[in-house]
């Protein structure tokens, strides 16, 4: 059946795009979140949970007066005046007070009783003396304790309730139970605790294109990243994730899944299908579920504009945008605070640092924009905030970033050098030992992996050769991996150096024509011959490269003024070229052998590309830079590079 293109083109609009504070205000006003009721759990199961009530000590700790040393329990008054010259002598009572032993004999005037650390003090005694400060004499039928100094009343006694007294408040509601709190509770005999019930959050991902991680990716499909990411964030914030998996773009299936989710959970989170494309029906389904329904649909926020906040059947229901970065940002901003409130947890502890922008940061006017950044040290001191984002569809920005900056709604961008506050993802995060900014290569992962096993953390910012070189010029990285071809000199990399920058030779990467194996138009031919034949065949589609890349220079040299089909498709990476050929949207392109192997493509060698490391001389003496050089020169890394088809310099 022909799809109803007109209906698809005529999608409904967002209700109204509101400011993010207004969005949160409406959401909270409707759902009025409060800590959930308490449940009783065994003490150890309480670890990590939030106390629902204040806890008062039911007994004294310690429960009785006890000795805190090994020695003798006695009456201080009997030792008054004791000295080297005039020692005092006390008769030892005929019992030994070990821990757990209850005294039978009262300490009468002129007597003492042997007592161990932790044993209950006998009646009559009011002090304990250290065993090493006494002597024993056998006299007639009695054993006598000799003291050469007086004891102070109360010495070496831990009195009942001195740790915590019965009725005293020990822990307050809202405290997260850790090992120290467990110790406290166990010490007063508590074996069960009342904790706030964890909010159960149902997590659904919607979209016909989604495939669960672990399954095979069919053409056009993509892995469900949001399901796992949202569930993990729920758990990190004191909730229980109830995974509902993937629901296709089918209104009835989605309605049924949402109904089950609302039944089972305290809060329901969906991702995908909130925007205006074909198949975006999450928001339409909410309307079927009852009032008040949608509270907010559309927030002046980037990423996250299509966020939808709703309340149905008395429960909060949120539809996150499908793009993972948008989904996680909006989840953190709008849903995490609600989960934490339900869980009885306070607001997340936030930390922020000041930094400056190394380059102009463009921004869309009209939406507050959150830009993820990686922090690097500047040569003049202080930090630079380097944007790591690759658009809302990318998740790598999260793992590479230290935090984010906010660009206000009414600006079109921030100039280079602007001071910004960076809100950190992890307040305790560790700064990397080595910052590498530039072109990415699988070989770089080999070196970074080698350093990681030696305790050195490398931050790789995949910015591309040109931006890496610019960062190196500003002194904002240790190394910039580049493969920049200079057409004027016909040389790689060295022509781009300026004073203050050096070059550490890296490796050579063989570039060549990539094609699907078995394609007789390429298989078994010489590269030059195969390209010439491809240019003569109008059925063959190529994939080009971006202007300025070394590979593009190579392609231009072969093509001259010819513009074959596919020439305008100019992706920025070796991988994108290989992926286009592998999935059949192009028949050939130029990439490197390592990548061709990775995609299972055929390869006809053309020329070598030099992948080297621009080094910032001011940082060249840093131990991590020295370790990097050593790693590059060492046999372990060289062998692994060679196995990837990369030829280390000097070999
Ligand atoms: N004409 C317009 N198009 C779009 C607009 C707009 O205002 N007008 N908004 C854009 C913005 S901003 C975003 S963000 C996205 C969000 O769209 P949806 O929330 O409807 O999400 P989908 O269309 O379902 O998916 C978008 C994208 O994300 C991928 N996706 C979805 N779910 C997952 C998942 N669980 N794990 C990983 N990736 C997922 C999906 O395959 C799409 O690639 O809309 C813009 N469009
Ligand atoms: O809001 Mo979308 O989340 O910009 O990408």
From TrEMBL:
Question: Domain named MoaB/Mog: which ranges?
Answer: 202-341
Please list the GO biological process terms of this entry.
Answer: Mo-molybdopterin cofactor biosynthetic process
A cellular component term from Gene Ontology for this protein is: cytoplasm
Does the keyword section mention Transcription?
no
UniProt feature coiled coil, ranges:
none
A Pfam family: MoCF_biosynth
Q: In which pathway does it act?
A: Cofactor biosynthesis; molybdopterin biosynthesis
Record's SMART domains?
Answer: MoCF_biosynth
Q: Which reaction does it catalyse?
A: adenylyl-molybdopterin + molybdate = Mo-molybdopterin + AMP + H(+)
Q: What is its EC number?
A: 2.10.1.1
The molecular function terms of the Gene Ontology recorded here are: metal ion binding; molybdopterin molybdotransferase activity
Q: Which InterPro entries match?
A: MoaB/Mog-like_dom_sf, MoaB/Mog_dom, MoCF_biosynth_CS, MoeA-like, MoeA_C_domain_IV, MoeA_C_domain_IV_sf, MoeA_linker/N, MoeA_linker/N_sf
Which cofactors does it use? Mg(2+)
The EC category is transferase
What are the entry keywords?
A: Magnesium, Metal-binding, Molybdenum, Molybdenum cofactor biosynthesis, Transferase
State what this protein does.
Catalyzes the insertion of molybdate into adenylated molybdopterin with the concomitant release of AMP.
Give the UniProt family note: Belongs to the MoeA family.
Q: What NCBIfam families does this protein's entry cite?
A: Glp_gephyrin, molyb_syn, PRK14498.1
Name of the protein described by the UniProt record: Molybdopterin molybdenumtransferase
Organism this protein belongs to:
Prosthecodimorpha hirschii
- Provide the taxonomic classification: Bacteria, Pseudomonadati, Pseudomonadota, Alphaproteobacteria, Hyphomicrobiales
């Amino acid at each position: 059946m022909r799809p109803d293109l007109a209906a698809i083109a005529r999608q409904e609009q967002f209700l109204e795009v509101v400011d993010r504070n207004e969005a949160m205000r409406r959401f909270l006003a409707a759902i009025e979140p409060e800590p959930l009721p308490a449940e009783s759990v065994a003490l150890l199961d309480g670890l990590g949970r939030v106390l629902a009530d204040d806890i008062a000590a039911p007994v004294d700790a310690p429960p009785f007066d006890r000795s805190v040393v090994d020695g003798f329990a006695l009456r201080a008054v009997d030792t008054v005046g004791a000295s080297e010259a005039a020692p005092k002598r006390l008769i030892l009572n005929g019992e030994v007070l070990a821990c757990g032993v209850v005294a039978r004999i009262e300490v009468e005037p002129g007597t003492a009783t042997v007592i161990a650390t932790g044993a209950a003090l006998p009646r009559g005694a009011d002090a304990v003396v250290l065993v090493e400060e006494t002597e024993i004499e056998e006299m007639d039928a009695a054993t006598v304790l000799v003291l050469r100094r007086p004891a102070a009343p109360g010495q070496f006694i831990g009195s009942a309730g001195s740790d915590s007294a019965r009725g005293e408040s020990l822990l307050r509601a809202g405290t997260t139970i850790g090992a120290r709190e467990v110790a406290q509770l166990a010490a007063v005999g508590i074996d069960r605790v009342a904790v706030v019930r964890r909010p159960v959050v149902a997590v659904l991902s919607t979209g016909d294109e989604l495939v669960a991680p672990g399954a095979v990716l069919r053409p056009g499909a993509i892995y469900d990243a949001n399901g796992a990411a949202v569930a993990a964030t729920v758990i990190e914030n004191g909730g229980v994730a109830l995974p509902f998996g993937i629901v296709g773009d089918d209104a009835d299936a989605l309605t049924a899944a949402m109904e089950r989710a609302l039944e089972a959970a305290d809060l329901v989170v969906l991702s995908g299908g909130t925007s205006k494309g074909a198949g975006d029906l999450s928001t339409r389904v909410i309307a079927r579920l009852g009032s008040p329904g949608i509270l907010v649909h559309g927030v002046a926020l980037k990423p996250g504009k299509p966020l939808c906040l709703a309340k149905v059947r008395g429960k909060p229901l949120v539809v996150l945008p499908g793009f993972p970065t948008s989904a996680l940002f909006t989840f953190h901003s709008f849903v995490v605070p609600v989960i934490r409130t339900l869980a009885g947890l306070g607001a997340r502890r936030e930390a922020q640092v000041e930094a400056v922008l190394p380059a102009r940061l463009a921004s869309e006017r009209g939406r507050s924009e959150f830009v993820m950044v990686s922090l690097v040290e500047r040569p003049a001191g202080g930090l630079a905030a380097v944007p790591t984002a690759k658009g809302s569809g990318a998740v790598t920005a999260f793992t590479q970033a230290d935090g984010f900056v906010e660009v206000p709604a009414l600006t079109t961008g921030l100039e280079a050098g602007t001071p910004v506050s960076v809100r950190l993802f992890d307040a305790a995060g560790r700064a990397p030992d080595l910052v590498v900014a530039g072109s990415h290569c699988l070989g770089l992962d080999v070196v970074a992996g080698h350093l990681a096993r030696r305790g050195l953390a490398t931050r790789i910012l995949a910015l591309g050769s040109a931006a890496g070189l610019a960062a190196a010029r500003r002194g904002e990285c240790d190394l910039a991996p580049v493969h920049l071809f200079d057409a004027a000199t016909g040389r790689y990399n060295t022509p781009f150096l300026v004073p203050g920058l050096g070059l550490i030779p890296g490796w050579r990467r063989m570039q060549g024509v990539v094609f699907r194996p078995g394609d007789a138009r390429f298989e078994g031919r010489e590269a030059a011959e195969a390209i010439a034949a491809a240019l003569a065949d109008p059925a063959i589609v190529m994939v080009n490269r971006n202007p300025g890349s070394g590979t593009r220079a190579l392609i231009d040299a072969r093509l001259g003024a010819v513009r074959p089909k596919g020439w305008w498709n100019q992706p920025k990476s070796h991988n994108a070229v290989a992926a286009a050929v592998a999935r059949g949207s192009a028949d050939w392109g130029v990439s490197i052998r390592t990548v061709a192997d990775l995609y299972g493509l055929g390869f006809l060698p053309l020329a070598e590309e030099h992948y080297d490391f621009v080094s910032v001389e001011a940082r060249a003496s840093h131990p991590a830079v020295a370790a990097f050089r050593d790693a590059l020169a060492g046999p372990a890394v060289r062998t692994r590079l060679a196995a990837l088809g990369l030829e280390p310099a000097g070999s």
